[in-house]
Amino acid sequence: xxxxxxxxxxxxxxxxxxxxxxxxxxxxxxxxxxxxxxxxxxxxxxxxxxxxxxxxxxxxxxxxxxxxxxxxxxxxxxxxxxxxxxxxxxxxxxxxxxxxxxxxxxxxxxxxxxxxxxxxxxxxxxxxxxxxxxxxxxxxxxxxxxxxxxxxxxxxxxxxxxxxxx
Length: 166
Hints:
Blueprint: H1 6-11, H2 17-32, E1 38-42, E2 45-49, E3 53-56, H3 58-65, H4 69-81, E4 85-90, E5 93-98, H5 101-105, E6 109-110, E7 123-126, E8 129-135, H6 138-165
Antiparallel strand pairs: 1-2, 3-5, 4-5, 6-7, 7-8
Helix pairs in contact: 2-4
């Protein structure tokens, strides 16, 4: 799974249609970016992407988002103007870099394998700063579970609305 910031999730369900589409598309980019360094071949080109980078084309983004090509182009420009992403041309496609990808998607990583963890507690740490670890209380864990359940229900409700509106 991928962790999305609360502002992104809340704006995905905004009453403002433009705001909703923008953040749905931004969430899609966060979800489809590379989560680790990888090298892959696309056509006759070989690309190396680090965390938070994506090499794709408009056709793939249109298929994934179900927005029109003109909407995808407009959303990419808006997100770039907002300073959220950077778009560059590569080969026959686009390279999209999501700024602050690690901070946005993996602010805390669960680490049950660390020796300091007792069986009933989870220890959290910043991805590149192990000294910033903290222990979650059972109340905090329960609150996080409730938040995740609310988000899941909101997403299901949105899917049902889309299904019956067609």
